[in-house]
Structure formats: structure tokens, C-alpha cells
Amino acid sequence: MPPSLDALEASLLNASGNVKLDARFRTLFTLKGLGMAEENRMRVIEIISKGFTDDSALLKHELAYVLGQLQDVRAIPKLESVLSDTEEHAMVRHEAAEALGAISSPTALPVLRKFLEDSDVSVRETCDLAVRKIELDNSDTGRKEAEIKAHQDAHGDARAAAAHAVPPIDPAPAFVQVKAADDAQPEVENVYTLEKVPYFRSILLDEKRSLFDRYRAMFSLRNIVQRGGEAAAVPAIEALAASLKDSSALFRHEICFVFGELCHPACIAAMTKVLDDPSEHEMVRHEAAEALGGVLEESEDGPSAHEQVVATLRRWADDESAPRVVRESCIVALDEIAYNNDPTQFQRIDTVDL
Ligand SMILES: [Fe+2]
Ligand SMILES: [Fe+2]
């Protein structure tokens, strides 16, 4: 018997006072899976919305993320109030803005535009991305691109599609077309190939271009890793890793997030370096920790790579001098590793067809 929504609420909100953070994260993923079904969604939105009184910024930013991924306009008022609360942790406000972008309703544009002038640079940049995404999604160009994307997805690698029963909503859509050299007809079919790595890489690394276009190049490279065949994966990962020197912490954190999605062993070295750097922004180190937690599922690098990653995560989980979001991310990542390596666990509900 799956747990009832009431039991999940008590777990997520830690009603007993004894539920550990990692267990609450697992509950949140379960709720996300259940919330994909229309009949549960409003109740799931209510439960998750109650969690914003917690004192863990890490948990709250994940609540905002899930609300966005549920893609339901009924979550907009809560997300707007989280973004508008200037006392709230910037990482949580950033995630609320991104979630509004994921839902993509023009009704959220006034609030997002208001915080284009926020004092926190990551919040400002996220609002800019969300505004551009909503404007694109709701334009003729955006609708045309969505059609092309649907076509490409239908003809894309079935394995990549199967990896995500419900693919995540990206903060900026991958490019679906590449301009041909002679500027004749843009290429429509499969642009996620090894040959296109230099093209997307040049956009990714060009700090003169808009953050939105550079995000689009980032997700195009992510698609190349997932769909471009074995030979394309490492060059695309190297292109992504090259931008970890970018001046925007938001941009760097998204690269780490993408590495978390990819779960590719070629990401381990770069992610370890980010987590081990105490001068790096806490939001970036948090995503690096989570990426390291995910990578072990698929790593075939043997026990030594596994041990090294676990040792790195343990070290930062226990380091009192590290920011709280970094320590907590390491705890959650270690739980993820333990959970995924436990043969007695059932398949996680967010990967099950409900
Ligand atoms: Fe984020
Ligand atoms: Fe995050």
C-alpha cells in the first residue's frame, strides 16, 4: 500500500519532530510523483506550500523547484509570495522565480519584472531568465519551436526519453535549430550531434551574449550528451565544464545542475573540484554535491571512484565551517547513494508510471 497523502504531509512537514532531512527529501520526491496525477495535484500543492515555514533553505528551495515542475497555475500565488519575501534565503527566492518560469503563465510577469532590480544578483538573473522564457513560450516563435521539439523528441533516442518518465522543465529551452552556414534553410532534424558541439560551445562561453541564449546552449549540450551517441558525450561535457569559470554564480550552479541530470562519470572530477573549493558560492557547491550523489548510480569506474566520492561528501557533510546548504546537500546526496544501492528498496515513485 502506498503511503497516504496525510502520512506524506506529516513526514514532509516533520510533524513528529523526528523525521530526518534526507527522509523528508524522499517524501518530497514521492509527493512530486503523486502530484503529476491531476486528482492529487491540488492537495500536493497545499502540502508543499506549507513547508515554506521550515528553517532549512535547502528543503525550501527544493519545495519551490517541485512546485514549478508540477506546472500548475494554482501554485503561482505561493511562489510569488516566496519570491517577494526579501527576508527569505536568496537560493529559495531564486528557485521560486525559476518555478514561475517553468509554469510559464504571463500572469507571473509583473512580479518577475519587479525583481529584475533585486539586490541579489542570482535573483535578478533568474527573474530575467524566467521573463524571457515566459515571453518565448507564449510567442509564435516559441510555439513553433515547441512543435519542432515535440517532433525531435518523438524521433529522439528512446532510451533518453525512458530515463525520464516526465522530463524536467528546463529554465531555458534547448535550441531546436541551428542556422546553416549559408543562412539558407535552418537545420531542423537532429541538431544534438557531435558536429554541433563547437557551435553550442561558442554560444555557451560568449559572455557578451544574453544569459538566456547561453542557457539555451547549455541545455543543447546536455541534449548532445544524452542523445548524440557515445563519441559526443565527453566533448559536450568538456564544453560544459569549460564554463565553470564563468563570472555568474547562477550560470555555474546551473552547469552543476546539468551534471546532476547527466549522472556521467566524466563529470566527477569537475564536480569534486567545485565542492572542494571553499571560496565557491554555496549555491554552486550545493549543486555539485547533489551531482556527485547522482553520478554513482551509473558510474562504472569501480569501487575506488565510489569511495572517493563518498569520502568527499562525508568530509563536507561533517565540516562545521561549511555553509549549511552545502553540509545538508552532502547529507542528502549520501542518503541518495545509500538508498540507490540498497537492493531492498522499491523503485522510486517518481520514476514509476502512475
Ligand atoms: Fe537553482
Ligand atoms: Fe538546487
TrEMBL record:
It comes from the Eukaryota. Its main location: cytoplasm. GO terms for cellular component: cytoplasm; nucleus. Its cofactor is Fe(2+). Binds 2 Fe(2+) ions per subunit. InterPro entries: ARM-like, ARM-type_fold, Deoxyhypusine_hydroxylase, HEAT_type_2, PBS_lyase_HEAT. HEAT repeats lie at residues 75-115. Keywords: Cytoplasm, Hypusine biosynthesis, Iron, Metal-binding, Monooxygenase, Nucleus, Oxidoreductase, Repeat. It is an enzyme of class 1 (oxidoreductase). Catalyzes the hydroxylation of the N(6)-(4-aminobutyl)-L-lysine intermediate to form hypusine, an essential post-translational modification only found in mature eIF-5A factor. This is Deoxyhypusine hydroxylase. It comes from Malassezia cuniculi. The gene is LIA1.
